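Page header: ASSEMBLY MODEL / three components / 844 residues total.
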Amino acid sequence: MYVAVKGGEAAIANAHAWLAEERRGDARVPEIGTDAIREQLTLAVDRVMAEGSLYDPGLAALAIKQARGDLIEAIFLLRAYRTTLPRLGASTPLDTGAMTVRRRVSAAYKDLPGGQVLGPTFDYTHRLLDFALAAEGLAPPATAEADPGEDAAPPRVTGLLAAEGLMAAEDASDAEPGDLTRTPVAFPAGRALRLQNLARGDEGFLLSMAYSTQRGYGNNHPFVGELRQGEVAVSLTPPELGFEIEIGDLMVTECQMVNQFHGSRTEPPQFTRGYGLVFGRTERRAMAMALMDRALRGAELGETAEAPAQDEEFVLSHSDNVEATGFLEHLKLPHYVDFQSELEAVRAMRAAVEAERSRRAATQPEMEGPEG
Amino acid sequence: MSGLLPGFADPVADAQSAFRAVLEAVARPGRVQRLPRSPAPPAPLSPAAGAVLLALVDAETPLWLDAGVTAAEWAVFHAGCPLVAAPGDAAFVLATGAPPALAVLDPGTDEEPQRAATLILQVATLEEGHGWHLAGPGIEREHRLRVAGAPDGFVDAWAASRARFPLGVDVVLCAGDRIAALPRSVTIREG
Amino acid sequence: MSGYNFAYLDEATKRMIRRALLKAVAVPGHQVPFGSREMPLPYGWGTGGIQVTASVIGAEDTLKVIDQGADDTTNAVSIRRFFARVAPGLATTERTAEATVIQTRHRIPETPLREGQVLVYQVPQPEPLFRLEPRRSETRRLHALADYGLMQVKLYEDIARHGRVGSSYDHPVMVNGRYLMSPSPIPSFDNPKMHRSPALQLFGAGRERRLYAVPPYTEVRSLDFEDHPFVPLRARGRCSLCGAGDSYLDEVVTDDRGGRLFVCSDTDFCGERQAMREAAE
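Prediction written out in full:
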């Protein structure tokens, strides 16, 4: 006799227990602490903070531990926490010009005021597995004292170009930008919301979309005008005080891409900006964001949008990995009610086709083709 | 396989040296290059033909050759290449006697001219300075090359092949430890 | 570095690349697909050039590596160090005249090249038509038909709009009158140096998996129109270090009040000239 399947609660409890066991792994191996994750998997922490839209290395480390290293799952955890937080106010705009740089490079100039500061980069390492790292307990080699350059806050490259009149001016606005976590985005979204969306978009998505513009699907001619990484102060002007107070520092990466612009009826030929600003040392994300910002400025600059990367609605609607992974993975959920009606529909269509075929065979047997 | 003659004495360095000579030969058609680090392949293969073969041929390149069983065994053992019966199926064609007609070798396609066959052609001697007049990419004004033992009617067959450019066959001429190349881009006039 | 073959690549990979290079030389300007390998440096850093160099060099060679014309740029230093590690016996140099193989990103040395030298270009985007037709299946057909109307139209539109051909770098060239080719992102100033150069020029694009070549003394014509001839661009002025008035110049920003000076991008050329001037004094 058939007994209908039940017992969902027990199944879920068992799955969670097993998940906890798997997360811990072999109990003979010491448990990883969130402090170790925060200190040693810093770039994972930075990515989770950036896409989680929450600057808190400790919580990001916890999310990574809980998610067993699945960064999208960790981002999801952080987002779910973030949404419970009260919104107390908006900071004044960050002054990245006053950043204490730990890394600052320009691909546009060989040398410039403030110099090129490589910082702790993978860029010129040879990607050969370093088996010495597999041995534990080795102290890292002492590094030379970090040299912040002659000037801890070097001038911006785009400022140098602007001084010569070669950099297109941006529309300045003191209006408080919208908040896409509180108000659904309507299209056209405008640059401020676009940048917000890109700043927390999936790194892989941004990377691939930006890469497509480099391969001809949406033209651009980008130069890294400047990439800078370091700490900036966050300030707030509480209405009850009426003056600015500093509330802390953020580690951020800013990328300013410089693109040639041939000019239009109203604008002379000059360089236009693609802008990226992200939490942490997430340089790849900052660069991809800057390329995408420029690609999505086509309408404003009188360019025709031909490629996916230039389509604002397409890009902004598909960049969020918490949304994307949710909808994609929901296909695992039961769909048997819908599937039942699909089954019935397919069976009915097949029956109709069969009936038609038999009817034709009965009336015109000589017309049957070899593949019929 | 006892008695099989050795290949390159130093497979890495000798292959590089042979390749550079072929690259230089193809880049400067008609200039004669020496291959001092050639192996001593079984007769009738010349040291140069043996070196070119081992430098370029392997399991990915079907080979046709007319040099007999011992030479074929040597080539298969050292290069690991598959042998084919029809010259038109070969990526590399090694001829020690009268070669197959250029027209039957794979000329590549309009979109993939790089798929064309390479003909390694053993001749009696190669001498610069007189003989054929060569012109084309890689040649400042004109190179002269005397080829003793070139197949009958080669210059006419070459002209017909040249007319199909960028399709065509690239030839490496070998004599003793010397080589010269005729990439498909070159034009030949009798001297 | 133990555990790796000479010049890092295994012999089968080198043979594959070598065969592709020979076909590339035989069909000047034609892009030959090749089985590009993952290298220990990232795509975009010069993996194509590195693979070509690794397949060409031997212990008797003398290698020079430049990026932006300079031997001391970080990426040039890194690549030169890589080869010094993986190719025992290989000599390296910063002198153009002494090198047998020169790997470059974005420049052709000022010192004229000679026979016997191989110039290896790092190429990010081998397809000259990619901005006009992004589908490689389609551009391959256009190359087969030698149908370069798209590019002619684009250049014509540039002239109509700006009074000059628009590309200041990576300006497309016709090779041997047959194939349209990307010279790699060298400044258009360098384009004329490709024409009938005595050296062999090889191009490697690792990420896009293409190789191509220009044999010595081959015609390389920068695309233009009779009434709007190709004019290479260069910053007006002289090098502040060596005084050269005919070299390609880098702009160096000296302060944030508009201070600028110009220096040769080719550090070897500039250093030689400075040394000669000192010797003369």
